Amino acid sequence: MTPGVFEYHRPNKVEDVLALLAEFGDDGKVLAGGHSLVPMMKLRLAEPAHIIDINAIASLRGIREEEGMIVIGAATTQAEIMGSDLLNEKCRILPDAAALIADPQVRNCGTIGGNCANGDPGNDDPAIMLALNASYTLQNQAGQRQIAAREFYEAVYTTALAEDELLTEIHVPAPAKGTGMSYQKIKRKVGDYAIAAAAVTLSMSAGQCTDAAVALTNVGDTALLSLEAAEAIKGSAVDARAIDRAADAAMADCEPVEDMRGTVEYRTAMVGEMTRRAIAEALSRVAGS
Amino acid sequence: MSDAPELTLEEREATIGGIGTARKRKEDARFIRGKGNYVDDIKLPGMLHGDFVRSSHAHALIKSIDTEEALKVDGVLAVITAKDLEPLSLHWMPTLAGDMAAVLADKKVHFQNQEVAFVVAADRYAAADGVQRVDVEYEELPPLIDPKRALDDDAPVIRDDVAENDEVGQGSRHHPNHIFEWKVGDKEATDAAFETADIRIREEIAYPRCHPSPLETCGCVASMDAVNGKLTVYGTFQAPHVVRTVVSLITGLAESNIRIVSPDIGGGFGNKVGAYPGYVCAAAASIVTGHPVKWIESRIDNLSTTAFARDYHMTGELAADKDGKILAVRANVIADHGAFNTHAQPMKWPAGLFNIVTGSYNIPVGHVEVNGVFTNKAPGGVAYRCSFRVTEAAYLIERLVDILAQKTGIDKAEIRLRNFVQPEQFPYSSCLGWEYDSGDYPTALQTAMQAVDYAGLRKEQAEKRDKGELMGIGISTFTEIVGAGPVRNCDIVGLGMFDSCEIRVHPTGSVIARLGTKSQGQGHETTFAQIIATELGIPSDDITIEEGDTDTAPYGLGTYGSRSTPVAGAATARAARKIKDKAKKIAAHVLEASEDDLEWEVDRFRVAGSDISMKMKDIAMAAYSNVPDGLEHGLETTDYYNPPNFTYPFGAYICVVDIDRFTGDVKVRRFYALDDCGTRINPMVIDGQIHGGLAEAYGIAMGQEISYDETGNVLGASLMDYFLPTSVETPEWETDFTVTPCPHHPIGAKGIGESPNVGGVPAFTNAIVDAFAHHGVTHMPMPHTQAKVWQTLNELGLNK
Ligand SMILES: Cc1cc2nc3c(=O)[nH]c(=O)nc-3n(C[C@H](O)[C@H](O)[C@H](O)COP(=O)(O)OP(=O)(O)OC[C@H]3O[C@@H](n4cnc5c(N)ncnc54)[C@H](O)[C@@H]3O)c2cc1C
Asked: Taking CB atoms and an 8 Å limit, are B662 and A273 in contact across chains?
């Protein structure tokens, strides 16, 4: 349970990070909160030769709103997400989910950027980003690009992030009035990843669901966006039958594996149950309803 | 010799802080400041670090071990294999159960993560680098994982080394994978009772393999002084003196040249009773290199290799009449001991004290048969916060009684009241050979029922059932057998299981006392001082308790099996009484009174009917200056106590759960625990023990399992999967008590450390099964994870 040999870098500027990433390529790893990377290193499942710590870079932290977009710095910690008035008011699914991530120690260090960039299907933020239709700002020495979260995840630990790229910001379209959202997660205990979890956003107008998104955590190679589940409630009054149809669709879309958390049958059933609960709660949170 | 202003008797008693005082734990001052001194805090000059190359397979032959690349790693000094230990005869070691265990795998590996080679390096990073570079070539063998298949004709033979032996230290055996057969009770009478009984119930009840998982893993620092030939080992030892004797027997070093020190220990729960390859390898490496060598387990090493608990596969049966009166009990057990028989029980008890399976009930006849088997799993079978298989026994009988209640339609509390051993039956001789010392079971259960409004709960449950909601009420009225133990039937490697205390009263009236036990969090520094305080009238704050250094402490058998207070606590009281006897002589001499005229009064001897008295503090000074002719100076003594019997703490627990029928989530709404541990020395320490023990019981019941896949890969051996409840999951505990003193213990105390674990686990299972009882469910296997509870819900169609 001790990591291999590595060299440690702590640059002060984003440009310096990018230069180091360009220099080391595959041998370099960005260190944010370290709560996914360091355990992997201790188990020697990851043995990067260079660690590039981004914690000294103030510009990578913070949460602001500009032009209908909530912009979150990649190195913002989960504790900061939980404490953000802006998010609690306008996008509470993020602080709600952060509260379900491990314990205060993990949340004080772990960052939202690390959670999104890590590529572990067990991470909670990716499904939420899928549901919110967020996008990521990726930078390298050549410049920067914006990529939709819905395009980012490819397979377990495989994302669109290139070796020389740094995730600097997360852009979340500020949810419109009349949007309700909820993240429901079932886990075995504190510090466990989800048996299954569902992120739901939905908008209501005149008793009808005008827009919805449903995304799932830890029941596939990546977080999964269930378009069918969203379709099942769109245009409906989100009554019990619509909710059941959405749950069935989410269950059909998920691909969990059997592990210590339970059988495929159980985890699939929990996808249905979490979807049901998330829709019901999101609905109850639609302003004015 | 009287002080002014004179304090009242009550005030004097309060200053002493003796038995019955909820005094804050003395040791916590250093623990909460991070100033404890644990094994991994010990750093000696020139110290090296050792780490193990471990087997990736459960069962395989070792074709070759290539250490060349590892030795090239900067900082790696040596790689030790079985071949290197063989000339020293250290490649195998004797176990506490009369078997042999490989220190480093000798020609074959018997379980995944078994120790194969020991890399010694300048620091733990280099050691880990070296471990990565040792190349071991294996030839896989078919593994044996299911203990119920161990005795099949075609089962793979696990232990070639003993395959032909007709015993492996615990009696005769009849198969290469068989370890022992243990039978107790009257088989014929039991069979006959079953034959004619109106009601018979039978259930297969497994107690899964779990692990004590103390917060601090096992480890040691071994230091051989090449100049004077003295070996010092600092380690996580629950029984330091036993370790010293065993080390002497294994190495041939004189016991006087071995010093074993247990510094602060971060929880043991049975995990730290046995001897592990790490200790032997660190000592061997220190002898060879001339440097101190440290070995510290990782969490994964701890959970997957050192001392698991339980793994009892039980079939239990009760015979009863129509009124639910139990007529006979029968139990048949397959005990999975893993690859080597390294369980830690008194030598004569291959299944520990499992024959306490009669529990709190007056059962006329019974028969128990236990067969121990080898499998390709980590060795062990320790008592996890338990007195030698009492937990398994209590779980079985408490489950069976519930099943009998369901079968007869009698309420689960009522059936217990009908079958309890009655207060006037004590001392009670059980059909399986124990003499229960004292108890009042009906009062305990009735008090519990009143406290939780049992009738009200049953009413609420009935209403909930009508609505399709699942609520369960679990009762556990357990009896323990602790305080091993009487030397006539308890020994470890031939050493009688007495214990000891040495007390020294200093001239100015403060005290140091040393015991043969070793606290791992139980609060001995607090509790034992209180015994002495009451006996000698010296404030407990002036009494230092020291344990764990074999160079200074009197010989004792250590701390486990709730034995410290029943055995060493008794020695403490008796040693104090010897001191007091001498003090009386001195007081009589100084006061020029007759001993017969002196009476004890809190902290002094008083000449009866007068205002002439002498405080213990002043007697202490006199002991060093003014003793009567014929009396030695000083005020010191030692007591070795061989208990006449075990002690039998008991309790009545009631647990109420609500089950989410869609997710399988179990919510413990209420947990009421009434314990009777006899005389209560420190109520706060007792409550702490109960809270901790119940939290562990909750962990075991809900999610502690070390499981294996069919090829022998150990699953869940990290805290990601293994359930260590935090304050978030842990339910609220309501504690209560009755006091039925132990008649044979000097202060009437019985021991409390393990009751909550022993009694807690069946309370949880009983509550969960009770939630489903109206659907005909009689048993649900532990651990009760959401996934497993959901399985039941799904099978019954209750989740729709
Ligand atoms: C006990 C425990 C329980 C946990 N439970 C959960 C849980 O239930 N749900 C959950 O979501 N998470 C859980 N986690 C993980 C935790 O949330 C991590 O903090 C998170 O996954 C990674 O964020 P980090 O800031 O710690 O990243 P790090 O560990 O530092 O990095 C993770 C990966 O992302 C890369 N990376 C980090 N930041 C950037 C960036 N800005 N640009 C490019 N690449 C980057 C790193 O190079 C690395 O590959 C748990 C962790 C622990 C220790």
From this structure: yes
Ligand 1 pocket check for A41: Cβ under 6 Å: no
Q: With an 8 Å Cβ cutoff, is A191 touching chain B?
A: yes
User: What domains appear along chain A, each with residue ranges and CATH number?
Assistant: 7-53 (3.30.43.10), 60-173 (3.30.465.10), 179-286 (3.30.390.50)
User: Is B726 within 8 Å of A103 when comparing Cβ atoms?
Assistant: yes
**Contact predicate B129/B374, CB 8 Å:** no
pLDDT digits (tens, 9 = 90+) for B705-751: 999 999 999 998 999 999 999 999 999 999 999 999 999 999 999 99
Task: Give contacts of A45 with chain B, Cβ < 8 Å.
Answer: none
Q: State how far the alpha carbon of B294 is from the alpha carbons of B45, B51, B121, B280, B297, in Å.
A: 12, 9, 10, 11, 10
Residue entry with tokens 């569902």: A198
Residue by residue, pLDDT tens for chain A (289 residues) are 899 999 999 999 999 999 999 999 999 999 999 999 999 999 999 999 999 999 999 999 999 999 999 999 999 999 999 999 999 999 999 999 999 999 999 999 999 999 999 999 999 999 999 999 999 999 999 999 999 999 999 999 999 999 999 999 999 999 988 899 999 999 999 999 999 999 999 999 999 999 999 999 999 999 999 999 999 999 999 999 999 999 999 999 999 999 999 999 999 999 999 999 999 999 999 975 4
* DSSP class of A278: H
Ligand 1 atom 46, closest CA: A30
Q: Which helix (H) or strand (E) holds B768?
A: helix B755-772
Q: CB of A177 within 8 Å of any CB in chain B? A: no
Any idea of the CA torsion for B635, B638, B644, B648, to the nearest 10 degrees? 90
> How many A from CA of A34 to the centre of ligand 1?
6
CA of B349 from ligand 1 middle (Å) equals 50
Q: Name which of A2, A154, A185, A161 is nearest A74 in CA terms.
A: A161
* B431-463 pLDDT per residue, tens: 999 999 999 999 999 999 999 999 999 999 999
Q: Tokens representing B345?
A: 């029980």
**In which order are the strands placed within the sheet that holds A179-186?**
A179-186, A196-205, A208-217, A224-225
pTM value is: 0.97
**Smallest CA–CA distance from B786 into chain A, residue:** A188
Strands B666-676 and B734-737, by their bridges, are parallel
Domains of chain B: 9-35+499-641 (3.30.365.10), 44-141+217-265+273-305 (3.90.1170.50), 395-484+645-796 (3.30.365.10)
Look at the alpha carbons of A185, A187, A189, A190 in this order and tell me if their dihedral is positive or negative: negative
> Cα–Cα distance between B326 and B357 in angstroms, integer?
13
Do residues B82 and B106 touch, judged by C-beta distance below 8 A?
Answer: yes
Euclidean distance between CA atoms B1 and A285, whole angstroms:
78
DSSP state of B257: G
Q: Residue A190 Cα, ligand 1 centroid: separation in angstroms?
A: 16
- Within 8 A of B75 by CB-CB distance, chain A residues are none
For residue A6, the chain B residue with the least C-alpha distance is B125
